[in-house]
Amino acid sequence: MRVLVLLLGALLAVPAVARAQTTDTRNRALIVLDASKSMNEDAGNGGSRLDAAKQAFDQLVRRLPEGAPIGLRVYGSKVAEVSREQACKDTELTIPVGPLDKGRMTSSVHALQGKGRTPIGASLLATPDDLGSAEGRRSVVLVSDGGDNCAPPDPCKAAEQVAKRGVDLSISVVGLQVNERVRKQLECIAHAGGGTYVDVQDAGKLGEELAAALARAFRSYEPAGTKVQGAPDEQAPPPDLGPGQFLDTLMPGDERWYAVDVPAGKRLFASVTAIPSKTAAGQASLNTELVDPKGRSLDNFGQVMYGKAAGEAGRERSYGFRSGFAGTAEAPAGRYRLHVKIGDDGMDPQPIPLELGVQLLGPGQAPALVRTAGALATPTAAPRKATATPAPASPEDSGTSWAVVLIVAVAGLVLGLVIATVFGRRG
């Protein structure tokens, strides 16, 4: 997902980056879209939530290449004022997974009317068959403004069941203007499905978040990024990351700190992805946190990664962070820090590649669809906080390394979520 990457590493090995930015045509994605009655509610921007979804699809389709392997399942769009039993069967594979037909995708979404219930669990259980079992990554992105009101099946248990259908099948979720109760359910779905969750309150941002959630879907397995080594603890000077993509390597039990200088008027999009070896047995946990210049933890996330012994639930894990526009009390300008820890939960002691994505966006800029190798930045001078914030590190020379790494963002999200490549190398 994403646009206008600042190419500070222009002197890096461009041919290697170019080779890494290839589409894996084996990979397929399925969007599961909420078209229930609640999507008719006011989105706060002059239209309904369903209108916002239609605009988001317009943005997404314009950015995706013709022929991309993607499909669409919709629930809640067919029946209204019927029995609960009938309404909870209202889930349909509107567009089978196959080469993207932009006109068909756009017209199908624009024809939707919000009518019925929200059978999320039943919709998720149908997705493995929708995606098929051929080789390659299979990604589900659920977009919903409400929780399941048709259980059973329980949507979290359904997501877990779906994730067990293959190591390369994951479910990410975009929540549109949801309340706290619904958010917990949607987060549970993403965690159980091995994907990422992102919350969207501004309906106008749905398009960029949907793109961000799809970023991992079509990535090739070719690695790309600049070699970097994070600080081993909070007191050590962390490397200062500029925009782009970076690679580090951790062992189970290791932790790392990284810094990003965010100037006033910019918004930080960052993603962290860890990929245990395919030959490693056991499990470990990926724990990530974003800390602002005042020492406040803005977001933290933990999820289990599986090795060979438990590979049915997937291996790699990714999470995306987003800050507000810097320059306010809630989002101060200055040094933000990323904290990553690999929990030692019994996984074989093999190196775990860690992929970091960084992007600084101004107003009106969307996350990039392609991210290139990044360059280490020179931190700007900033006053030391009363709390123990690491001092700015000295700038280092950037280097390029293409280690064994996968996936992005979200996002992060994911997928990541966040700052990655939809049809090229994640960036």
Which helices and strands, and how do they pair?
Blueprint: H1 14-20, E1 28-34, H2 49-63, E2 69-75, H3 84-87, E3 91-99, H4 102-110, H5 120-131, E4 138-144, H6 155-163, E5 169-176, H7 180-192, E6 194-200, H8 206-213, E7 226-227, E8 244-250, E9 255-262, E10 267-274, E11 283-291, E12 297-306, E13 317-322, E14 334-343, E15 352-361, H9 412-415
Helix pairs in contact: 2-4, 2-8, 5-6, 6-7
Provide structural commentary:
The protein has 427 residues and is of the alpha/beta class. The protein folds into 2 domains: 28-213, von Willebrand factor, type A domain (Rossmann fold, 3-Layer(aba) Sandwich), CATH 3.40.50.410; 226-416, Sandwich (Jelly Rolls), CATH 2.60.120. The chain has 9 helices and 15 strands. α6 links the parallel β4 (138-144) and β5 (169-176). α2 (49-63) runs antiparallel to α4 (102-110), α2 (49-63) crosses α8 and α6 packs parallel to α7. It is globular.
Supply the number of structural domains: 2
CATH-defined architecture of the largest domain: Sandwich
> What percentage of the residues does DSSP assign to strands (E)?
25-35%
The main sheet comes to: 6 strands, mixed
